[in-house]
Specification:
single chain, mainly beta
Length: 536
Amino acid sequence: MPAKPAPIKKSPAKKAAENAPEAAPEPEAAPVEAPPAEAPAEAAPAEAAPVEAAPAEAAPAEAAPAEAPAEAAPAAEGEAAPAAPAEEAPAAEGSAPAAPAEAAPVEEPPKAPTPPPPAVPTSAPLNVAVDDVNESSLTIKWRPPETIGDSGLDGYTIEYCKDGTTDWTVANEALTPANRYCIKNLTTGDLLHVRVVAVNAGGRSEAAALAEPVPIREIVDRPKIRMPRFLRARYVKQVGQQVNLVIPFNGKPKPVVSWLKDGQPLDPKRANIRNSDKDSILFIRTTQREDSGVYEMTVKVDSFEDKASIILQIVELPGPPASVKLVDTWGFNAALEWTPPTDNGNTEITGYTIQKADKKTGDWFTVLDHYHRLNATISDLIMGNSYSFRVFAENKVGISETCTVTAEVATIQKTGIVYRPPEYLEHNFSEAPKFTTNLKDRAATVGYTTKLLCSVRGFPKPKVEWLKNQMVIGEDAKFRQISNQGVCSLEIRKPCSFDGGVYTCRAKNAEGEATVSCKLEVKQILLAEADKEKAK
């Protein structure tokens, strides 16, 4: 059951509120923007607006209606109002209710996030070219844009229109991610302009179009230059010679042939071109140095083309060395230095030729030819003579027509030259005997002569002796001792079983002696009984 309405006590704050009738209409419009009901201090729309309109001393009175909106509204209009709940009544009568109004500040709405920067379209695709064409389709290719951006690349749109119109038709319904596209169902004989547009989140890029319109027809034979093998490398001719180069090619219908020299059109006064259905001829009657360069031939059929380059080098004899200097003269020698020629004849210098001339005769003689260095020493000059020197440059064409002569003369002095033969210490060649080849054990047969061999070296020449079982072999006719150029041999003539044993070769000189030994075994031949009877 509701409580009885509490008696209305008019506080100074209430009186102030009643004395301001003009503020009453504003609390009725305030509930439209009122915050949720869970905030009691903010749920009193009738009193929210008067807080700003009333004087500062009315603040305590305004805080109480915040908790009891039903009581505040009738009080402002002079009508009876039901009593507030018991637990809220003390708050309406006292001056302390101003604290709840301060404890519930109005919340600020959250700030909107910073929007991302707008997407930027990509740059235009690059190098749009024709890849293939026939009577009903056209295939083009291109390279990705140089600048794509953070938003990426969604794909490409291919558009075409007939020559003489601006009605562009989109060839692909959906964006294509590839860098090649075939436009189909075309009409034979049409002349089409084609362009490619890159698309991303920022929109369409600038269009990249073919340089020339493409006729829709079948290409029977694409152009192809068949460059001869000898023209694939540098083609060298001498000044004054004739150039007549024939370069064959394929292509149908008849290709259009064009020539460039170093990127510029040919000078008809220097070079002539004659074209046919199968080849092109580059003709220069008399070559000059300025005819050197890169000649580029282009064969074109509609939008298809083939290119080839020829490097033509016109060479001639080089000029003389820039300078020749006599650096030094000593004994019978003279040192020269020179610098390369300023004109090499449009080819590299391969060598130099150096000549000398005696002032007495004035005749020039070649000292060095095909010489690659820039300095040289001339030797074997004659004492008392004076010499001049000159140098020619040389390249693959030949030797320069002129030369450069030394400004100074090299004079070979007569005095102050005393020949002193070098002194050499006599070498001691003394060496103790040493066997370089040892004796080897041998097996001989009774009655068959055998030979023992070894070699020895030493200085002075060692004396060689042979020993059998440590006994010196003397002048025994059964043994033949030979020593020649360090090779020692002992020949045993028709040995018997008693000649077996240990043989030693001993070599002695003033520096020492050396020995080498081997074992000789003499075997007896055993005859069968039948052979023995035959022997009897």
